[in-house]
Amino acid sequence: MILYREALFGAALVVRGQCSTMQKEKLMKSLAGPLLVVAVVAALWTARDRLFTTAETFDDAATASSEASGELEILELGAQARKNLQLVAKAMRPADYWRTITIPGAVADRPGVSDRGVTSPAVGTVAAIHVYPGDTVRPGERLVTVQLFSEYLQSTQTQLFKASQEIALLQKDIDRLSTVANSGGIAGARLIELKNNVRRQETLIQAAKQELLNRGLSPAQVNQVVDGDFVSSIDVVAPPPRNIEAVAQPDSRPTVAQASLVIADKSNESLAYEIQSLAVELGQTVQAGQLIADLANHQHLYVVGHAFKREAGYLERAAQESHVMEIEFADDSAELWPSSEQVFQIRHLSNSIDPESRTFDFFVPLENQSRTYEKDGETFLVWRYRPGQRVRIHVPVEKMESVFVLPSEAVARDGPEAYVYRQNGDLFNQISVNILHEDRRHVVIAGDGSITPGTYIAQNAGASLRRVLKSQSASGEKPGVHVHADGTVHAAH
Fold first, then answer.
1. If you placed Cys at 398, which of 37, 99, 231, 384 could pair as Cys (CB 3.0 to 4.6 Å)?
2. Does residue 248 register a pLDDT over 70?
3. Are 272 and 71 in contact (CB under 8 A)?
4. Distance between CA 131 and CA 278 in Å, rounded?
5. Is residue 70, in this structure, part of any structural domain at all?
6. Are 145 and 33 within one domain?
7. What average pLDDT does the chain have?
8. Are 302 and 372 within one domain?
9. Are 42 and 163 contained in the same domain?
10. Do the Cβ atoms of 364 and 315 come closer than 8 Å?
């Protein structure tokens, strides 16, 4: 202020002309500095309002930016809130991930394995029916009883009985002549002849037994015929399940003895059939080879996929390289069944295209699970997978290396931006991520540093947490969230 007054006083003297020229010059030089200061101060005073307003505005913007990038990206969730949300966080680890295409399909019977048609082994009349559609039977259990009137079958039994009796007589002669034959002569030649006759009769007996087994008689019934008790009726029984390896290798043929096998051990529930239908009625005349009943054993099935021709290349590669696929079964109550470790791979592709759907089929073997229940003294069989059940088949087509994979519900969306939530105790920090691939169930995140190995990331409730953050950003509330007992969530007040 003193300089200001001196400058004004000096200026006044100059104006009034009360000084000499030298005094004037000396005075002006001494006043130059104070006048400059005065000018600067005056300029600053004039612009004070504009400068302070700008500074305040800048400070407000900086504060808002800090809030937007700092505390407003953080939620605080206590233990109860996390429990109500059923929130789960897991440590992330980079892994290889196969991008997949999804192809619809259905469960189907495996021809020649799952379905079994049982036929009449001989000509006769249906004398009794022991099962009905829907019943569960095991191998060896009776289906129907057929009263025989086949002349050929009767003559075969007669042939077997006579041959058995003839061998008995021949054996007596052999035993009688054995002692005499040691001395040589005619007895020795006769003994050789008798032994040759025995071998011929044994051949006839073996052929007759095989024929009777083929015609539906059991081994016990065949022995009954040998003893002279002819069989007038036969029981048509459920056959043993086909050997899956034998079906895959047609050269492996089950023997007749195997075909007549009766399974006594009932502990294996899969060794059972469901009666799909009966093709005969009581009193009906049936011919040899005529269908008696349709049985189903769903232990070995197919998952049949329906693909378009443009997907053939992916499927051929998956089949050739034995890629493991994931299959989703519609209406599958997995929690009611034991866990299954089976691996799904394509067995073969069809070379025909359906003219209506313009799709071709491919086949994936499926091993079924079963259990039984008792009702009114009867046993019923229940299968986990059933023909006609719809599926989604996820076929791997591209390998993505060193990526992070999260469930779809872990990711929150806001326009083109995607976010996940990193846990640190009770705090959940929102992180922007780059999505490489996603489908209905998974999201694949690039390993670009946004997530580091070992970081705990919330596996669900991403959309709910994002809604709370947006609500807090609009209201300026302190970070935090309140979760109701029913799991619904809103910003804390």
1. 99
2. no
3. no
4. 9
5. no
6. no
7. 77
8. yes
9. no
10. no
